[in-house]
Every structure is written in structure tokens, then in C-alpha cells.
Amino acid sequence: MKKFGSSIERVEGVREEEKKKEILEVMGEIFDSQIFEELKEREREKTPEELQIIDIANDATNKLREYFGLEDFDIPADNIHVIKEKVWENSPYKNKAAIFALEKQSVVMREISVKLVLLTKLIHEMIHFKSYHVLQEEKETEKISQYRMGLVCQTRDGKTEYLRNLNEAVTEIATIHLMKKVAEANPIFDFEIKQTQEVIARYKNARKRDGENLFTEDTYYAEVLPEKKVKIMVEDFISKEQRKNLNLLIDKLFEQNPDKFDSRDEVFDIFVKAMLDGNILPLGRLLEKTFGQKDCRLILRKLAELDADIEKQREFIVSL
After folding, report:
1. Which of 25, 197, 262, 281 would you label with 19, given CA atoms 20 to 30 Å apart?
2. Which residues pair with 232 in a beta bridge?
3. CA 196 to CA 192: how far, in whole Å?
């Protein structure tokens, strides 16, 4: 279906076609206008370097869509809002670097001076932005809210959200693949990549306060801050526990379908495609065939119900 100039594919729970069209057109207007009074004094103009990285992230995420047979979906720079650091520190999102705001049809993010970090956060949020989106009119309140965002599904009363862990894991693994490929191909990131390699090599035995290794396989940026004592700033890929669960599920699917897949990446692609185009049936059929369930919804429902307890979710995957 045509996107009506926004990320929204369709609207559920509305019978009148004219009302559906009106909602989609309003979202298209929001996508195009990007005028929000509450952000006027909070955001700043983007630098030429930031605009360049936005273009790079757009191109990378469009190539991801193209790989799965989907058309390009460009996110204009105006739909990326960079919020001043002092303002962000006092916001509800202070523990995050960026968010995709579906209702604003935009990415809202804090000021990020490190180019590799900016690229990574933009790719992650753009994948959310370019995933499958459906709105709904909630049954009781008639409020318009999110129904589908990628693999995430919200109940018809708008009170409960399912499969957030799975969606975040798929998004971040896809982000890691894209970020590494793009960073190596663009000279703008050369200095930070080299610096990170040198810091990790020099301080390879560095530890956190709890005694754990400072650097892990998820570390993609490191910098020594010039202070009285040696202090190292690191950036790691996120959603580690969620990714661990997804990788465990992918391993099981790959190992139990040797005649169907030549690599783990082929299994992962099924999750990514379902997130981007909204068609969850191929994933469901794979789960049914592999684990002998008559209804894949039983597996997906159980994964969804355990979203709040990552360890129990892992135990369930192990039990499959």
C-alpha cells in the first residue's frame, strides 16, 4: 500500500474508508511539516557533518530495504531533531541517545559529537522508522495509537505491547551489520576507527568498577579522556541480552533445518524481512515446522508474555 507520505501503511479498527484516508493524510502532513512548538527552543541546527552522516544512514537503511525487495524510503534531515544537551539531560529520555517518535514521524536525539556513535544511533532509529507501521483506533477510547511497529504488536485496547525484545534485537543486529560495513567504506570515520583500535590495544586489560572487562566484542568506540586519572569512554552496541536470546533462537532454527539454510544469516533475514514488510507468516511457518507446533502464535505469544523477564524468555527458547 502507498505510504501517503509517512511511515504508516494502514489503519486498523476504523470501518469508514474516508476516516482511514483522513488519518493517513494527517500523518503525511506531520511527516512533511515537522513543526512542533515544544521542540522550537530545545533543538539546534544540524551541522554539515551531521547532515552528511544522516545521508549516509539513509543510504544504508535504504539498501537494507532494497535487499528485501522494498522501495526506498528517505527520511529528510528535517525529520531528525537534535536536542541541546542540557535540555536532553532534563528530559524523560535522558538515559537514551535517540528515539523514534511515531506520532511525530521523526527521530529525536541528543547532541552526539562522536561520528561513529551518531551513525550507529541514526541507523538504529531509521530502521525503526522504515519498518512496518500500522495505526489503530482503540476499541474503548477511539484514540488513535500504534498497532504494529516492525515485529512489535499492541493490543486493541492500547494497554499492552508484545515482542518488544525481539524487535529490538533484530533492529540492533541489523544496525551492527550496516554500521560496520558503512563505517569501513567512508573515510569520515577513519580517525575514530583507528583511535578506537589503538585505545583497546593499549588498555586491553582495563576493567570496570565491578571487575568486568571494559572492552567487549560489542565495543565499537573508545577514547581516552584527558583528566587527572586515566578515564576511558566507551560505546557498546545495545540490547545485549535481547540479542543473546535472538541468537539462541536463530541457532536452533539453523541447526534443525540443515536442508533449508546454508548460513545463519539466511535465518536472520527471515526476521528482518518480517520486521520491514509486516508479513510474519514465513517466520511463523518456520517456527511451526521446526518446533512441531500446530500454531506458531503459541510460540510468539509465549515469547511476548515473557518480554518483562529476559532470563525466563531465554529459558523458554532453550526448552524449544
Report:
1. 281
2. 224
3. 6
